Amino acid sequence: MKKQTGDEPIGLFDTKLLDILVCPMTRKPLLYDADAQELISEAAGVAYPIRQGVPVMLIEEARKL
Question: Which sequence ranges form a coiled-coil region, renumbered to this chain (predicted)?
């Protein structure tokens, strides 16, 4: 898993969003997994998908880790 700092966009997802996005369950920061195109919430143990560059931050769409 590659953690991005938000300095530059990778693919379609703009990693600058990591500065403002938080997990909707825990309100904790997220990690970007570029290979899987997911935002990882280590605190909640779930991954939110990124579809066409847009993070889907719905709890019911999260995948359990």
Answer: none
Q: Give CA–CA dist 64/19, Å, rounded.
A: 23
pTM of the entire structure? 0.80
* Residues 47 and 33: beta-carbon distance below 8 Å: yes
Look-up: residue for tokens 């700092």? 5
Question: What's the CATH number for 15-64?
Answer: 2.20.25.10
- Give ∠ CA 43-25-14 in degrees, rounded to 5: 80
Element (H, E) at 54: strand 54-55
Tens-digit pLDDT profile for residues 27-62: 999 999 999 999 999 999 999 999 989 999 999 999
Residues paired with residue 49 on neighbouring β-strands, in sequence order: 38
Write down the residue that tokens 């066409």 correspond to: 52
